[in-house]
Amino acid sequence: MRLSFNTAAGLITMASLGSVGFASFLMGQSSSGDSDSAITFYAPKGSDVWYSSMDGQPMTHQSFVTEAANSETGMSAAAGLWSGLPVIATYVPHQENSSKPLVENEPRFQFQDGYTSSGAYVGSGYEINEKEEYAPLSVHDNMIIIFSRCPHLCCIPGWQLVNNDFTTDNWYPGGTDSGGNKLFCICHSSRYDPTVIEKNRNRNRSSGAEFDYIGIKRTGGPAPVGMPLIPFVVNGDLIEALPDFKDWYTFCA
Length: 253
Ligand code: FES
Fold this sequence. Notes:
Blueprint lengths: L2 E5 L2 E5 L3 H9 L12 E3 L19 H8 L7 E7 L2 E7 L2 H4 L12 E6 L5 E4 L2 H4 L12 E5 L7 E2 L1 E2 L23 E3 L4 E14 L6 E11 L8 E2 L1 E4 L2 E4 L12
Parallel strand pairs: 1-9, 6-12
Antiparallel strand pairs: 1-2, 3-4, 4-5, 5-8, 6-7, 8-14, 10-11, 11-12, 12-13, 15-16
Bound molecules: FE2/S2 (inorganic) cluster.
The site of FE2/S2 (inorganic) cluster has 11 residues, from loops.
């Protein structure tokens, strides 16, 4: 497997994370020697991001809270690696804003219905709270962890790594393509709203097998659907992922 990371400077193809990382993940082994559950910061080469000085270090919840205080929206996000897989951890001031009027720049997690690219209804993001099977994904600690491979052609979207209207530090409610703080895939400009949680359907590119998943919403571009969530815990202050839904992360394998 080859991974293409988006950066402000362009694409970096990462063969080094290839089959070793992914196979190790599926086998429940670590490719790095760290705990299987640890998520580490990954600062894309050539980028100048708030977590550059923490590249390779375990992600802490407090680091996201601290960075969010520098934001107009109170949001923060960072790219990371979990057992060789690309992820984006996103902090949203959900608890603070969820009882306020739903207005611009007061972000919170929203739950919406998901539809396939052909318009078929799949299910509701509210199933995260209603169905026992999705209980590990219940929103907590004002954060979500996203498996960051683009359902279009498998590049790796980033957060605020390029400068355009989709990546500016502002937020509009409703899960539309308007407003900033989208995850943006530089390959062909797909956009995803990391504050909208939906249920959707994807297919394994090799086998054609379909699977339903809980993930974030695609708001624009050629990607057919959004990207899946990864359950996690905050252990002390460390952010650790859980392998409950590993089938969801194979669509590019
Ligand atoms: S691979 Fe992401 S938009 Fe094409």
